[in-house]
Amino acid sequence: MDAAKSKKCPFCEPSDRSRVLENEFCYATWDSYPVSNGHLLLVPFRHVKDYFSATDAEKAALWEMLDRAKPLLDERFEADGYNVGINVGRAAGQSVFHLHVHVIPRYAGDVENPRGGVRGVIPEKRIY
Predict the structure, then answer these.
(1) pLDDT computed for residue 7 by the predictor
(2) pLDDT of 48-63, one tens digit each?
(3) Which residue among 24, 62, 112, 116 has its CA within the 20 to 30 Å range from the CA of 125?
(4) pTM, whole model, 2 decimals?
(5) Cα–Cα–Cα angle for 87, 52, 71, nearest 5°?
(6) Is domain 15-108 classified as CATH 3.30.428.10?
């Protein structure tokens, strides 16, 4: 068994109730530690370490799921914007080694100055 999978991967056996959306290759579920209201994760069913280890079909399914997730999030949470991100490797902050895409709704005023968006992963590089 894959060493990463043997540590009880939280994404490998999703319950039907936890699935917000799904397609042939992946599902969407609410983040257990949300950054904002509506923080959603897009996750392949197959245990795959990171984005670069996924098949072309899995990658396409994730992006199709993103397009389906946005209208759902718009309706339920009325976000003003979104950050979409993938952590690949420990140095980039990946802590669960099963590929997942974060879809984070953003709201006007949720931070003092949102300029730089995902560049904020390195705080001193956020404002340019």
Answers:
(1) 66
(2) 999 999 999 999 999 9
(3) 62
(4) 0.91
(5) 60
(6) yes
